[in-house]
Amino acid sequence: MLQPHNLFWQEHPALLWGLSYLAGVGAALFGLPLWFSGLWFVYVVVCKQWRSTLLWLAAFGCSWLLYGSLPQFSEPVPCKARFSISNIQAHQSPFFRDLLYRGTLYLEGHSFPCTMSIKKDRPVASQDFLVDGVLHQRGPFDYTFKPKSWEPVPNSWSLAEFRYQTKQHLRSFLHNKLHRPRTASFLYSLVSGEVEDRQLRYEFGRLGLQHILAISGFHFGLLMASFSAGLGLFLSRQWKWGLMLVCATAYFVFVGSSPAVQRAWIGACLFLTSKLLGRPASAINLLGGALLIELIIDPLVAVNLGFQLSFGSCFGILLFHRGFDQTLEILFPKRSFIVSASLPPLSKFLFLLSSFLRKALALTLAVNTAILPLLLYHFGKFPGLSLVYNLFYPLFVSFALLGLVIACTGFLLFGLLSTPAFALLDWWTDQLLALVSYPPLVLDRYLYVQNFSPHVVLAYVFALLLAGIYVSNRDYELALH
Fold first, then answer.
1. Which one-letter DSSP state was computed for residue 278?
2. With a threshold of 0.85, does the pTM exceed it?
């Protein structure tokens, strides 16, 4: 009975390592229930993968040593500490605009993940600072600091200021080239991952399209595809893969580290490295490797919503997309290339449309199968329009991103001759935003679930893993036959 599980983990050990490490981090820092840890131990031992328990223990020990002994503050604490800045992000509330300085606060041998809100007289974030002020704790591993004074630390450095200034140049460039401020803000959000427009954030969240605005594998995939197509015309395979690795890293440095960005970058680096070395790499192992590496770098990302949704979505796609696609062939039959090529023009168009709908629907079902409990747990509701918009909207957005790459390339090569390309991009993006601003109200319905239990989420995730292994093995056997 467990033979399919043994075979699956032999083929995809990196995913097992990543999940075991995640379970250890959860048990050490986030109160993962004892029954779940025990269930996971029993499962990996019965599957003869007992070495993974060592990773669980290593994750538990390392996470506890790093963050388990952090002091808890029920009241604000005046202090002076060293602050290392990792990122600067513009923030807009209903009443004011400010900048959020994110980084790590070092105090009395402890490191606190910390955020500072700066409204005026901001320090240049090219180095570390000794800050004097008040430390507040908003929740577990969630700290804010209100600084009163900043003192630069000699011989220290940070990329945060360079990243912020580069993004500001990009923002100004897009607003100069595009006549509609809203389209410029949207494209800037797609490229930089920073959403400054509160209305934009609300409209995309209402339709379950938040993932479009967050930098993820979707954006890295388009970037890699564009560079691969362009560089493949001039360079050999090895040089192309090497330069793409450099470009992916440069884009990661530009965007800055967030859980979804880090997953996409690590996955891209592992994939491109496998190409350079001429070694095969399965997508599931790449996902597991990215999961393990990201947790080793920072165990606290496990509680981040972007981390959970990013890995959950990829998990759903890799394990369930093919199964949903094959099931939907009942409604949208496949045809061989020879048969489809001989069809009349109208029939050929309808066949291509049905193939697109089958793929898009299978992708939507696979993603939502994996992340629906997370959405209900964190938000208590699920928008019905998400199922409709996710069928076509990501594809339309990919056209906008591709158009932006073409327009910017044209500007670099031909200068003002690229103006028509920017005008067309401006119009297309405006149509996309209109689709989001004015959705069909008849379909604007929500699934509400109040007080969704975290125990139900954990049980669902474990059952989903077992189901995914079954579906993956079934698809593999069908492919062999």
1. T
2. yes
Q: Which is the CATH superfamily of the domain at 77-158?
A: Nucleic acid-binding proteins (2.40.50.140)
Which two tokens mark 136?
Answer: 């507040």
Interatomic CA distance for residues 146 and 133, integer angstroms:
6
Sign of CA dihedral 439, 443, 445, 446: negative
| Cβ–Cβ < 8 Å for 109, 161 | no
User: Cα–Cα distance between 90 and 326 in angstroms, integer?
Assistant: 45
Q: Tens digit of pLDDT for each residue in 237-268?
A: 888 888 888 888 888 888 887 888 888 889 88
Q: Is 140 helix (H, G, I), strand (E, B) or coil?
A: coil
End-to-end CA distance of the chain: 21
- With b for 16 or more beta-carbon neighbours within 10 A and e for fewer, the 231-258 pattern comes to beeeeeeeebbbebbebbeebbebbbbb
127 sits in the region (left: phi over 0; alpha: psi -120 to 50; else beta) called: beta
Domain boundaries, the chain: 3-68, 77-158, 170-213+299-480
Torsion of CA 280, 284, 287, 292, to 10 degrees: -90
DSSP string, 36-73: HHHHHHHHHHHTT-TTHHHHHHHHHHHHIIIIITPPP-
Whole-angstrom distance, CA of residue 17 vs CA of residue 54: 10
* CA pair distance 210, 208, nearest whole angstrom: 6
CA distances from 172 to 180, 214, 411, 450 (A): 13, 20, 15, 43
> Per residue in 180-229, pLDDT tens?
999 999 999 888 888 878 888 888 888 888 878 777 777 777 777 777 77
Q: What is the pLDDT of residues 316-358, one digit of tens each?
A: 988 898 889 888 888 888 777 676 767 777 777 777 888 888 8
Q: What is the DSSP letter of 124?
A: P
